[in-house]
Write a structure and sequence with these properties.
single chain, Rossmann fold, 33% helix, 201 residues, seven-stranded mixed beta sheet, 7 helices
């Protein structure tokens, strides 16, 4: 009898819990992307005023419930000295969301170097990757196809993993829902590689 009730309780209250890393250089729009994700999936969430967001020093955490799972975001600071901490989170992550400031041509090479170092880390083998070409609302921004040419310049970079790219304006909310929907789908497709944690809320 107990096992039957426990099974029912698990079915009703436990949800699969996953972790997605939001990476990229400082000022790429990572925290804005995170805040828009929380707002678009929970209309009661008021969030932080987007024009008040400052550079992340350390870590921002977000948590959303969608499609029967709990998705936790770790938004990590992108300053050069903070990038050395990224790999501490790789082993626990179920997806990577890499955000690029498409308008910042001067630092595009720096972003590419950080991306290459991240994506070749063995702890991320097979982990789904979403490439977000952010700030597309700025007229001089590079297009998604140009960003892909620069960052995904060979199949060896991606390896055997789920991969998708999206054109976005985190400030306006464009591309955010598509990004989250793809990330959730990719996590579920790859659950055999990285099983979920269990959540009771």
């Amino acid at each position: 009898m107990f096992s039957l009730l426990y099974g029912l309780w698990k079915y009703l209250f436990q949800k699969e819990e996953y972790f997605a890393l939001i990476l990229g250089l400082d000022n790429a729009g990572k925290t804005t992307f995170l805040e828009q994700s929380k707002t678009q999936l929970n209309h009661q969430y008021k969030g932080v005023a987007l024009n008040k967001i400052t550079a992340t020093v350390g870590l921002n955490i977000g948590r959303i419930h969608t499609n029967g799972i709990v998705l936790n975001f770790w938004d990590l600071g992108g300053q050069t000295e903070l990038q050395t901490l990224w790999d501490k989170y790789f082993a626990e992550s179920h997806a990577i969301i890499y955000v690029i400031d498409s308008s910042d041509k001067e630092r595009l090479e720096d972003s590419k170097l950080a991306f290459d170092k991240m994506i070749t880390n063995e702890a991320l083998n097979g982990v789904p990757l979403l490439l977000v070409a952010n700030k597309q609302d700025i007229p001089e921004s590079l297009s998604l196809s140009r960003i892909k040419d620069i960052f995904i310049n060979s199949n060896q970079v991606i390896g055997p993993r789920d991969y998708h790219s999206v054109s976005a304006s985190a400030l306006k909310g464009d591309g955010v829902n598509e990004s989250i929907a793809w990330t959730v789908g990719a996590i579920k497709r790859n659950v055999h590689n990285r099983p979920p944690h269990n959540s009771e809320d």
